[in-house]
Amino acid sequence: MRGRIWLYLSLAANVALAAGWLGSWLRRTSPAVVATAPESQPAAQTVVPRTNFVPRRQFFHWSEIESPDYATYVANLRAIGCPEQTIRDIIIADVNALFARRRATEIVTPQQQWWRTEPDPEIEARARAQLEALEAERRALLTALLGPGWETGDQISLPRPSQPGLPLDGPLLGPLPAEVKQQVQDSYRRYQERLAALQQQAAAQQRTVTPAEIFRLQRQWEQELAGILSPAQLEELLLRYSPTARTLRQELSQLGGLDLTPDQFRAWYHARRRLEEGLATLAEADSPASARQIQDLEAQYQQAIRLALGEERYRQYQRLQDPEYREALAQAQQAGRPELAETFYAIRHALAEEVTRLQTNNDLTALQREIQRRQLELEALKAQAEVLGENLPEPQPPAPTLRAHIYRAGETLISLAVEYDVPLSAILKANPGLDFHRLKPGDTILIPVPSR
């Protein structure tokens, strides 16, 4: 960005040097004219031509112009005749860099909590509010320095990267120098290009990319980053953006109900990384003993997870492998009683067993099996309601059986009540939409069958 200002400064310095050379030449040639005059002529008053050249220092340092106070900085640029367009470009770039550093170091974003499968809503809302406040502050500063029309300059039309980079923020990645961040972004871009080329090659060969191929690319990327970042910075970046970490977060998100601490996620990540490395090595070897070695790697992986989580959390992890338990946990969480997940699971498990037994009962027809299945589901719902302490509705009396009567001329409601031995009110209730004052022969009247 500062290349343009140096171009203008160099041009100004060259003009000043040319003016100084011209003045010096004029001073040297004036005495020579006087000395060549004929000696016989009387001495005359010598007129020495003068120039408007004012000696000034020809070189200056950028530190004499740059200032931590932006208002002074703008004034210094204008004092040396810097064009307004260049001033706008310099100030906008400098202010943007300043606020980029502040965004990277002052705000805690959900991406920094790489151990969470779902973003923390409070962290997300707070980060959004802080970003909006910083953006308002940035725009207000630029407006104060450059005027309300600063956004109409060429700066807003400058090209942007075709691929989004990695957010390098937080305590470890945020303070990285700009050149180091650029190296990381360039390495990530090369990794993405290699991955895209590999996918295109596999598609041309009508096959899918193997995990071993992806792992080799990831390892190459990690080796590049190891030459740029410290070990702690490299681990932070990989925990946030590596394919291994992203896949692990997706799997944990699908399981649900297993919130990890940063140390637990870190240990799990490294165990997963060792598993992927071992599987990639075996895939390349393609030896007869690979099946047994894969089993050994899986066993080591499970043991590492057990050590990372502890026995109680590991049992919960095993439970979450069962879809029925995940549904029971989700149901308990929805009811606001996550501690009842085991009870709900037991009810659902018992229901599943009864339904399986019912489906294998060949003594029942398909309709009978369906009726009994619905009755079992109703019993399971009642059991869940009792566990939650919800009052069950009072059982409703069964709906009365109705018979159809064809109205004949001369009949009345009273005669029908006597004929069928039912209360008059029951006949009225069974025919809510019928106008008994306009009955005509052939109309249908529903008559309740009295219970015996």
UniProtKB/TrEMBL annotation:
Residue ranges of every copy of the LysM domain listed in the record: 403-447
Transmembrane segments: none
Pfam families: LysM (PF01476)
Coiled coil found in the keyword field: yes
Signal peptide range in chain numbering: none
Keywords: Coiled coil
Record SUPFAM superfamilies: LysM domain
Residues in coiled coil: 181-208, 364-391
Protein name per its UniProtKB record: LysM peptidoglycan-binding domain-containing protein
UniProt source species: Limisphaera ngatamarikiensis
Taxonomic placement: Bacteria, Pseudomonadati, Verrucomicrobiota, Verrucomicrobiia, Limisphaerales
